Structure formats: C-alpha cells, structure tokens
Amino acid sequence: MKLLTIIQTVIAVALMAVILLQNKGAGAGSVFGGGDSSNVFSTKRGLEKTLFRATIALATAFIGLALANIIWQ
User: What are the TM regions of this chain, as residue ranges (predicted)?
Assistant: First the structure.
C-alpha cells in the first residue's frame, strides 16, 4: 500500500513537470479563447507530440494508481 502511494506521488510530480513544459497557449488570454486562432488545427510534431503523449500516459497511470489505492486500502 505504501509503495503505491510513493509511486503515485512520483507520477504526480512528473505529470506536473510535463504539463508545465508544454508551451502551447502561453498567454493568459488564450485560456479564455483569445489569442492567435490561426493554428487551432495544427499538427503536433517533435517534442510537442512527445510531451502530449507523455501527459496522457502519466495521467492514465495516475488515475489507475489512484483507483488501485482505493481498492487495496
């Protein structure tokens, strides 16, 4: 049980780091729909694509560990 909590904490820190490394929509106005709308349908390439996939993988792992932590308490 303790090991699951430690792994979940490490994944949470990694997930925060990956999210902060993404620079898409860096301006505060883009959060509410403002900003440059010319690249709304742009294709993710290179590091941006890797960070996007890492975010999905880490979020899935985090949720899975959270559920496992609840079940095996």
Answer: 52-72
